[in-house]
Specification:
CATH class of chain A: Mainly Alpha
Helix content of chain B: 25-40%
Distance between the termini of chain B: 34 Å
Strand order of the largest sheet of chain B: 6-7-8-3-9-10
Shape of chain A: elongated
CATH superfamily of chain A: MetI-like
Strand content of chain B: 25-35%
Bound molecules: adenosine-5'-triphosphate, magnesium ion
Number of helices of chain B: 13
Number of helices of chain A: 10
Structural class of chain B: alpha/beta
Radius of gyration of chain B: 24 Å
CATH topology of the largest domain in chain B: Rossmann fold
CATH architecture of the largest domain in chain B: 3-Layer(aba) Sandwich
Number of domains of chain A: 1
Shape of chain B: elongated
Oligomer: heterodimer
Order of helices and strands of chain B: EEEHEEHEHHHEHEHEEHHEHEEHEHH
CATH architecture of chain A: Orthogonal Bundle
Chain lengths: 230, 359
């Protein structure tokens, strides 16, 4: 889309009006990211645990299943987000009944986030000492106990870093999703900044995004470090 | 008691299958410490995994108190494997759990009630002398301390068998001694069978009652420490109590390799031999030490004045077995000597002192 004739250059939104514009959009961004992350942590986390444990050295080696899941995850990760978003429009429509708005953005974001997070979880688990699993086994623990105690709990610092990284990616994706009218900060940047050359809004969204990402990273690092044991 | 019967274990790799254990037969009596030694790659860890049921044998059986655990799976396997406590090489404590939580892990997963669990954990930590570290994290402990926590955890479910794969490797001598004393104590007090996998012969000699030598996936030697050391033909015996002897000095007729037999040995045998038979005796090397109630001893002597057969039968009466000196050990001794210092009276005296100190 090109800027229309009426959207003349220099018609910047007054600084004083920016909060009224930005705050609801910011809330929308977090609503999207929050919803997506909840799904991603659940499904992607489970997929990561599955990848780790179906591996030849995992708790229940299943080479064939591992291969299939690994292939699916790679497929999900091979498409750039914009392409994925466009490609799955029929699915998005079928799931949400619409192709625009927050609901419509959540579907491609979740679909992109799950394989990414699955690999991050698998990596975090791979960093654990291999003996952890043997400890679980020889102490007569159940599969669930072994996964919870010797895998997830021990990997918490690594998992926190994974969540941080994934959250930042989702903030970025939410901005891309703004182009299909998803709402949020990204939508603001596209409609005001890009289509109407509103430099005030453009600048404000950039600042907000930078600060947000910095804060998320900072908080993530702090939590991750707090979870480390001597 | 553990009976291992005709145990085979193969792994399939890219290049086909490798048979790591080729028919192991072993009986481990209740209350005994059995050492399993052998060169790297002999299959010791594989054997330990078959005993702790981390691996399923390809064929053969591991019977614990008469029951074949390797035939079990699922819930039955989970509860039966609690009869075996495992100590890992690098302690394998969970890093984000405190010492107390690590020891409590097996109890918690068994569903022991909280109150009872706390008491048991305190009792276990007290046994290994680390009650004051209950709230520390593994990262705050020394290697020896971590290993003791590992032992406490292994003991948590009151196992009948304690399995340790290289649990003292990489520890300093003092920590090693602490661990060994601890294992010896729990064996005596709790009547546990201990299987000690190690490559350190000193460790074996200090605590084990019997030793099995694994070579190329088979048990090449197996028996009580005393019997192996007393047998001049036993390679394991020579490794258990090595003697780095001097070459036969000029003026002596022949060298003999002497082992203390299992049973009473006259401590004055050297003097007896010399005065009783009227021969000249040179001590070329030797080592004598206490092993529980028994005495382990091996020596090499040079003799002049009487025929070999006569000397050997005389030594026999004193409780010693004598054989012509093993050519391998002579060669080894010769090569070490050239590498260090020429033979001298000093070296001989040193050998004598060694006997004196160790006896
Ligand atoms: N999972 C496996 N797959 C294929 N080969 C294996 C596997 N585990 C062990 N082996 C092979 O089996 C042989 C014995 O290994 P094992 O670890 O039991 O030896 P070890 O006696 O414990 O040696 P070390 O003293 O070095 O610990 C080795 O040649 C090893 O390469
Ligand atoms: Mg090994």
């Amino acid at each position: 889309m090109r800027p229309t004739e009426t959207a003349a250059v220099g018609l910047d939104t007054p600084w004083a009006d920016l909060p009224a514009l930005l705050l609801p959009a910011y809330g929308e961004t977090w609503a999207m990211v929050g919803m997506v992350m909840a799904l991603v942590i659940l499904v992607g986390g489970a997929t990561g645990v599955l990848l780790y444990n179906t591996d030849s050295r995992g708790l229940f080696p299943r080479p064939r299943l591992h291969g299939v899941v690994s292939w699916l995850v790679n497929m999900g990760r091979s498409l750039p987000f914009l392409v994925l978003m466009a490609a799955i429009i029929p699915l998005t429509k079928w799931v949400t009944g619409t192709t625009i708005g927050i609901a419509a953005a959540v579907v491609p974001m979740t679909l992109a986030g799950i394989p990414f997070f699955a690999r991050l979880v698998q990596n975090a688990l791979n960093d654990l000492p291999r003996e952890n699993m043997a400890v679980g086994l020889v102490t007569g623990s159940s599969t669930g106990q072994i996964i919870r105690q010797t895998q997830l709990r021990e990997a918490l610092p690594g998992l926190t870093s994974a969540i941080t990284l994934n959250t930042i990616s989702m903030i970025e994706y939410s901005a891309i999703a703004g182009t299909i009218g998803a709402g949020g900060i990204g939508y603001l940047a596209v409609t005001y900044g890009y289509q109407r050359f509103d430099t005030h809004v453009m600048a404000a969204t950039i600042v907000v995004l930078i600060i947000t990402v910095q804060l998320v990273q900072f908080a993530g690092d702090r939590i991750s470090r707090a979870l480390l044991r001597p | 008691m553990i009976e291992i019967r005709n145990l085979h274990k193969s792994y399939s790799t890219g290049q086909g299958t490798v048979e790591v254990l080729k028919g192991i037969d072993l009986t481990i009596e209740q209350g005994a410490i059995t050492a399993v030694v052998g060169p790297s790659g002999a299959g010791k860890t594989t054997l330990s995994h078959c005993i702790s049921l981390l691996e399923k044998p390809t064929s053969g059986q591991v019977l614990v108190d008469g029951r074949n655990l390797s035939a079990l799976s699922g819930q039955a396997l989970r509860s039966e494997r609690r009869a075996i406590g495992t100590i890992f090489q690098h302690s394998a404590l969970l890093r984000r759990m405190t010492v107390a939580e690590n020891v409590a892990l097996p109890l918690r997963n068994l569903g022991v009630v909280h109150r009872e669990m706390e008491d048991r954990v305190a009792e276990l930590l007290d046994r290994v002398g680390l009650l004051h570290k209950a709230n520390a994290y593994p990262g705050q402990l020394s290697g020896g301390q971590k290993q003791r926590v590992g032992i406490a955890r292994a003991l948590a479910l009151r196992p009948r068998i304690l399995l340790s794969d290289e649990s003292t490797s990489g520890l300093d001598p003092e920590s090693t001694q602490q661990i060994l004393d601890l294992l010896d104590d729990v064996r005596t007090e709790l009547g546990l069978s201990v299987i000690l996998i190690t490559h350190e012969m000193d460790v074996v000699r200090h605590v084990a009652d019997q030793v099995a030598v694994l070579a190329n996936g088979r048990v090449s030697e197996y028996g009580p420490i005393g019997a192996l050391v007393a047998d001049p033909q036993s390679g394991a015996g020579r490794q258990l109590l090595p003697v780095r002897a001097l070459p036969l000095p000029a003026g002596f007729d022949y060298a003999l390799s002497v082992s203390y037999r299992h049973g009473p040995v006259d401590p004055e045998w050297l003097t007896r031999l010399s005065t009783g038979l009227g021969v000249r005796v040179a001590l070329l090397g030797g080592s004598v030490e206490a092993h529980g109630e028994a005495v382990l001893g091996r020596a090499e002597i040079g003799v002049a004045g009487r025929p070999e057969a006569e000397v050997r039968s005389y030594l026999e009466q004193l409780g010693l077995v004598a054989d012509p000196r093993d050519p391998v050990s002579t060669a080894a001794a010769a090569s070490t000597r050239t590498a260090t210092a020429p033979p001298s009276e000093g070296a001989e005296r040193e050998a004598n002192e060694k006997i004196g100190v160790r006896a």
